[in-house]
């Protein structure tokens, strides 16, 4: 199965549609344009980009709210925090401070605290 992101006028992903591989095969070769033509005929919407679960194309699998960046030919998620920057190689957002190392002897979980730009330990309720 092939997956196609439906884009708005600002290249924001509105939905992801699945197309059978038989539809996109042209002379036995996968064709993105065949999928775009199929979806355009079916829905009347004309702005589509193929996406891939395994990241073989366009860096990341598209999700609703993601951006398609034509210059990078990549999909990326909305910026989670204003201090985070986009990694140009992976098109993943990165915090200014690395996530704390995992200690299997004393496992802890952390959440990002934007006002102080740091990871803080998440603790559960106490008895």
In short:
The protein is mainly β and 127 residues long.
Task: Describe the protein's topology.
Elements lengths: L1 E6 L5 E7 L1 H4 E2 L2 E2 L1 H12 L4 E4 L15 E3 L4 E3 L8 E2 L6 E2 L14 E5 L4 E5 L5
Antiparallel strand pairs: 1-2, 1-5, 3-4, 6-7, 8-9, 10-11
Descriptive report:
This protein has 127 residues and is mainly β. It has a domain at 2-78. It is 13% helix and 32% strand. The chain has two helices and eleven strands. The strands form five sheets. Strands 2-1-5 form a three-stranded antiparallel sheet. The chain has a two-stranded antiparallel sheet with strand order 3-4. Strands 6-7 form a two-stranded antiparallel sheet. A hairpin with a 4-residue loop joins strand 10 (109-113) and strand 11 (118-122). The termini are far apart.
Beta-strand percentage range: 25-35%
Give the N-terminus to C-terminus distance in angstroms.
49 Å
Shape: elongated
Structural class: mainly beta
What's the total count of β strands? 11
The SSE order reads EEHEEHEEEEEEE
In round numbers, the mean pLDDT is 94
Q: Provide the gyration radius in Å.
A: 19 Å
Task: Specify the biggest β-sheet.
Answer: 3 strands, antiparallel
Number of H/I helices: 2
Uncertain residue ranges = none
Strand arrangement across the biggest beta sheet: 2-1-5
The helical percent reads 10-25%
């Amino acid at each position: 199965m092939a997956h196609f992101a439906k884009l708005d006028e600002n290249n924001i992903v509105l939905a992801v549609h699945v197309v059978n591989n038989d539809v996109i095969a042209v002379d036995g070769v996968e064709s993105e344009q065949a999928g775009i033509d199929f979806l355009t005929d079916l829905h009347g919407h004309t702005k589509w980009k193929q996406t891939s679960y395994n990241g073989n194309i366009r860096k990341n699998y598209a999700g609703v709210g993601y951006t398609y960046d034509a210059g990078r030919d990549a999909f990326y998620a909305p910026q989670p925090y204003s201090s985070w920057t986009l990694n140009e190689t992976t098109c993943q957002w990165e915090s200014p401070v690395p996530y704390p190392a995992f200690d299997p002897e004393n496992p802890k979980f952390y959440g990002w605290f934007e006002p102080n730009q740091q990871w803080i330990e998440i603790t559960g309720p106490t008895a």
